[in-house]
Specification:
disordered C terminus; alpha/beta; about 40% helix; ten-stranded mixed sheet
Length: about 425
């Protein structure tokens, strides 16, 4: 009798070969019963530290674990969420002042960056108080901008032209490239921001891709530019202008969309033939059939993002992808999570299937929405795939005569023992 191999951490699959979670249906039905009142009772008894997967997103931002744990323990009601994270931000600002007084410039800037992200975390559940949400957003973006010159001196603050206005973005380029690099444009979701996504730049830069993190209309710092709408896919015009202005390869521009930003990325790639490749991370394919089954708290958050409960269904219809997929002409990588309780896991499968031969599905059977606890893994998968699709990484020739030759990466299965995918 031989031992069975360990289960895969993720698989690269055809759309016909998903690995469903057997309890997915039960979890979605139970989620519909999680009203704000019931969640408040749970938080009063156990705090937000007991919420499944609560830490993963904030650790993915690069926040210190002790700060994350302290803030979550303070949350004893939904209404108390912004105050708990504001406490964390103020604690970090105090640390920044201490480090600055001691002459520790980098440490002070890093504490300021963390304070900015704590203010961003506070905003997540401040959707029922627009004035407070705007104040938290302003604090987050201002503090982060102050920290960037010290922490990321090569990062450029750029404005992406969109119609008669501009969208805020950060641009980072890989070093020592012999040719203009391709560009990966990271599009945030409904509650993520360009600052949050900038923490995920590492794997893309390592594979020779420039990175542009962008707040699209209605999100992040661009929340005041226009209300959230799917009718902004023409932002690719401004993206290509940025590529040309900064001597990037405008023929090799890829969109990497996260959550709802994944749906926007697919729409933009399908409607603009100049986009060379697209990546969608736990995206909705068509929210109209399941929007009514979402948890009440998630629906309230989406309604606030859309501009009211009546607009939530309208926004879901705008972002539906079945009609635009017939126009898709570039390769599409879809990353799905088997235990997604925000977007039904089957949406990733349907999107990859709709892309036909152009689609590749990477399935994480035990992961939740956003793949926050797999950031290093999925960004490496996406960067390797993009470097293969868009063309090889070309550094300047080394003067070291015994330098090892570079081999092109290939996607494979990574198992729990660490083998596979490079």
């Amino acid at each position: 009798m031989t031992d069975r191999p360990p289960p895969p951490d993720r698989v690269v699959a055809t759309p016909a070969m998903p690995l469903p979670w057997r309890y997915s249906g039960h979890a979605w039905r139970l989620g519909r019963r999680v009203t704000r009142r019931r969640l408040d009772l749970f938080l009063r008894a156990r705090s937000a530290a007991a919420l499944p997967g609560a830490r993963a997103r904030f650790l993915a931002m690069g926040l210190p674990p002790d700060v994350v744990d302290g803030a979550l323990r303070l949350v004893r009601s939904v209404a108390g969420w912004p105050d708990a994270w504001t406490w964390a931000a103020q604690r970090l600002l105090g640390e920044a002042r201490q480090q600055a007084s001691a002459g520790h410039v980098w440490e002070a800037a890093d504490a300021r960056r963390c304070a900015a992200l704590a203010y961003h975390a506070a905003e997540l559940l401040a959707y029922d108080d627009p004035k407070k949400a705007r104040a938290l957003r302003a604090s987050a973006t201002t503090l982060y901008a102050q920290a960037v010159p010290t922490l990321l001196p090569d990062a450029r603050r750029v404005d992406v032209r969109w119609r008669a206005t501009r969208l805020p973005a950060y641009l980072l380029c890989p070093e020592n490239l012999a040719t203009p690099p391709p560009l990966a444009v990271l599009l945030n979701g409904a509650t993520t921001t360009k600052e949050e996504l900038l923490a995920w730049r590492g794997r893309f830069l390592a594979h020779g891709l420039a990175v542009l993190t962008l707040d699209w209309p209605g999100t992040g710092e661009a929340a005041g530019v226009d209300r959230a709408t799917a009718d902004c896919e023409d932002l690719t015009d401004g993206v290509l202008d940025v590529a040309a202005e900064h001597r990037l390869d405008a023929r090799r521009v890829a969109l990497v969309g996260f959550s709802l930003g994944g749906a926007l990325a697919v729409r933009a790639a399908a409607l603009d033939r100049r986009i060379a490749a697209c990546v969608a991370v736990t995206p909705p394919y068509d929210a109209r059939p399941w929007l009514g089954a979402a948890t009440p708290l998630l629906f309230d958050q989406l309604a606030a993002f859309a501009g009211g409960p009546d607009r939530a269904a309208e926004l879901a219809a705008q972002f539906a992808l079945p009609d635009v997929m017939v126009r898709m002409r570039c390769p599409l990588l879809v990353l799905g999570a088997g235990r997604d309780l925000v977007v039904p896991p089957g949406d990733a499968v349907r999107l990859a299937a709709a892309a036909g031969d152009l689609g590749t599905l990477v399935w994480f059977p035990d992961a939740a929405h956003g793949l926050y606890d797999r950031v290093d893994t999925w960004t490496d998968d996406a960067a390797r795939w993009l470097s293969t699709v868009l063309g090889p990484y070309r550094p300047f020739p080394s003067t070291q005569v015994d330098a090892a030759p570079r081999t092109e990466p290939a996607l494979a299965v990574r198992r729990s023992d660490g083998t596979g995918l490079g």
